[in-house]
Structure formats: C-alpha cells, structure tokens
Amino acid sequence: MAQNQPFEMPPQLRELAEKNIEQARAAYAHFMDAMTKAAGAWSNASSNASASGFKDVQDLAIRFAKENAEAGFKLASDLANAKDVQSLLALQSRFAQTQVIAYGHQAQELGRLIAEAVQNMKPTG
Fold it and tell me: Helix (H, G, I), strand (E, B), or coil: what is residue 18?
C-alpha cells in the first residue's frame, strides 16, 4: 500500500467545500460582530469601576474566540485542499498541537485579567 496515495476529491466537491467554508466564516464574523456590539452596549450600561475590569476580560475572551474560530476555518480550508491522507493527518495533528498551546496561553491571560478585576473590586480600606 502506497504511503502517499492521492486523496481523490472531485474538483466540484472541493470548490463546494471551499465555498461552504467561506460562507461559514462570513456568518461567524457577522455573529461575532453582533455579539461584540451587544457586549459593548451591556458594558456601557454598567459603567462602574468593577465592570471596567471585567470588560477587559470580556474583550479578551471575544478576541480569543475570533482567533480560535479563524484557526478552525483555516484548518477546514487546508483540509479541503489536502492532496493525500498523510498530509490531511499532518494538518490535523499540527492544528491540535498549535491549539493546545494557544489555549494554554489564553487561559493564563484570562486568569490573570480575572484576578486583576477581582482584586480591583476589593474595597481599599
């Protein structure tokens, strides 16, 4: 059995997959924009000092969600263009490794911001 056996996907199916990925990416971007506007409206309504620290947490979480989604869309696009099963598996493995590292950094950063926000909520007296 050949190691790099071609991954036969008809060109029409590949084009359809790429089109669907782009449509999903656009829909997700639209959704995230709406969520960002809603979050902004909520934080403007509660403008006390403790809310501002949590606004930073919220903004960072939204940024991370966008970055993670974009990474997923890029993976889907790369998978749609894979030429063989070996490259398909390599793409998936690389994605998993990269995202585990990214999630770790994101969790640390969010944890740090949450701790700062909680610390700023404590009365100074």
Answer: helix
